[in-house]
Amino acid sequence: MELIDEYGTEGFITLEGKVLQSIYTNQAVISTGGSAVYSDDAMQYLKSTGIVIYLHHQLDVLAQRVGNLVTRGVVCHSGCTTLEDLYEERCPLYEKYADLTVDFTGCSVEQCSEKLLKTVQAYLKEHPNC
Fold this sequence. Notes:
The protein has six helices and two strands, in the order ααβαααβα. The protein is mainly α. The chain has a two-stranded parallel ribbon with strand order 1-2.
């Protein structure tokens, strides 16, 4: 929240993108913030270094988790004011950059974990050079 207040939305997106592009890892999981998809350069970098996975949840499930967008410090590129607006703005971006999408609709936490693991294992079998 402090960085958004200090740099503004666009400044935060630029800063976040630069930070993501500075990460060098080997066989690691990077869990970005949802706003990472606003930086094409950062997303292209992440795609060049590994697999980008979109963990898709339904809007009502996310609403239970997110809470207040303003107090949480959520970045919305076009100035969204509701979670529904944010969801509609980001979902196409997540889909655009994803190498792999895992749909968690109707899954419990345990089922989500199992589904993610099985999906990634199957993907890696098909793409052994990842």
